[in-house]
Amino acid sequence: MVLCPGLAPLTPQPNNWNDFWETGRSTSHNIALAGGNEQGSFRLSIGRLDQQSIMYNNDYFRNNYKLNTSYKFTDNLQVTVSAEYVKSGSDNRRFTSSSDFIWAHRHTDYNKLKDWRSYYAIQRETFRPGDDYPYANWQHEYFSNPFFLQDVYTNANDKDRLLGNIALNYKISEHFSVMLRSGTDFWSDTRRDVTGVEFTKNNVKRFGSYRETVISSQETNSDVILTFDKDLSSSLSLRVQGGAINRVNNFKRNSVLVGELTIDGLYNLGNFASPVVPSSMIRQQVVNSVFGAATIGINNALFIDVTGRNDWSSTLPVQANSFFYPSVAVSAVLTDMFDFNTRILSFAKVRASIAQVGNDADPYMLNQVYRAQGLWAGTTPMYSESNAIANRNLKPEITTGKEVGLDLRFLQGRIGVDLTYYHQSTVNQILAVSISNASGYASQTLNAGQITNQGVEIMLSGTPVALPNGFSWETQLNFARNRNQVVALAEGLDNYILGVQNSLTSEARVGQPYGTLYGRRYQRSPDGQIIYRNGLPQLDEGTHAIGNIQPDWIGGFSNTFRYKRLALSTLIDVKMGGDIFDVGTGLARKTGQLAETAFGREEGLIGQGVMNIGTIENPVFVPNDVIVDATTFWNNQNPRTYHEAGIFDGSFVKLREVALSYTFPKAFLGNRYIQSMRLSVVGRNLAFLHRNHPHIDPEVDMKGGNAQGFASGEMPSTRNIGFNLNVSF
User: What's the pTM value of the predicted model, to 2 decimals?
Assistant: First the structure.
């Protein structure tokens, strides 16, 4: 049997894993009431969402109440008010990590694990002293009963969110108006996490632990905008705006850990048998801004937009807390300017812009701070300095973007082409750069260098078929290619680590594409084959670039077919290229979970590659023919060490959505109460049309943020099929 490290046939996940997953369900109900007259209007809506996850005992709900109103008190004064209250939460939002299943056994009977309460009732008096997990678990060290975890280690929450704004528009004159507006977004989330349960160790019975966390956040924006809008002549129009904005952000997080309960199963902060551990975080930020914008229109064909904005941020040092960023954009409708609208070319527009955007820092990055570390000997407060060196000379980040585009329509709009090229450059990025631990710190906050981002976007659209009988076909094809390059970092810094997993790093390295993966790679012969010794693959010394997270290109293909009252739409989503480091698949091979590891368990395996029968100085490569047992073979391709074994191509082609809808005719509805009714069947994430990864959905984001391209025991992706009924009265 010949196998190549890092490759496997296209096979599903082990069947016994599927015994744990359930069919998820989601139901949504919405009702809205709207009305109005010449003086004003209103819309009141109420909604309810209920979800049951594909994971056992995992749920979510959300209630929405929203009101939008507008009223003209006079011919010149109009007031608009919007308010929304959202109540959401869950009895258990915890999810058992899919990586746990990597260490399970293929013969696991999940039906027995699900009935752990019956097992425990029988066995609780006979389990071994010191056994922390007497709950139908045969493999305590690496795999815990997922049903037990979902039943007992619950993570519940209740979240309240309130959004509201009020705007007053006053028309001072025919061409001059002012708007005063203020709005806030406030939410509070109470989280209750059971982090331990009753257990017995060393013949001493103890009860579990419990954490309660309350997080609140509020963002309030208030602004005033003056607007002048007038046609100066039949060929010249002018719109000018100016104003000021105040933004205030407040964030608070309080948490209390009860490390040991007095009464088992009573999850309350007052039920503590040992001192509780509190923690608290408060963050505040204020940004004040002034801005101006002007739009000049010439012959309704040439438009020039100019903007400028200055921010003052409380998170930057006084000497650098003011930063200005402008923009200029020009667009021209060529077919109107030169009056050459023809049957073939019906519309042509060019556009170009250059713009800057400023960005400040997170709060409290300017000065060294101390963190509470609890009590020493139960009485003396302890504090430790932050492990990050602050920077009181931070500068704002500035991103400069340039863009040119062309929009063409042919055959009276039946065919459209939209082309865009863009280039962005970000300087003074605010980053926490890792430094030697010998300094006593782990990182230092710096303004680090320059990163460029450039690419092209192409969209083709058209209506190939439009028949008199009501049948039509509308289609759209889009393509995008983007490249990030690290031009420079801070002085003396050659690379910045974006993410790390088992010593493999994703880095921003000067002169290299952003997100290059560096790790251990296989030794290879001059023709690229893996070199084996004693039947096992060999590794090169040091670390090397073995992948990059950036895709070669992404795209989509959508179609809509209509025939009278029927409509069918489809969407295909494409990503080509872009590597991921998937530790989970490599470890599942190591533990024998995946189908490809069944081959050679009796007779052994021969790795596909070559071996050197010459010397190091004068190598002679011949096909590898050394048989090794399967366990040794797969252990020596563990991606924790053999990083290249965990590198997979993240390409995919997905049938992202299919929707079929029918609009009922008026004759069916009657004319008295129901105005319209539409029934739809919608399927999302329906199928893989192509993928190069043998096991998981390559559309993964294990770490989030800048640390893209990592995976380890990912949750199975879901296919969603639903029905929508929209009725208007």
Answer: 0.87
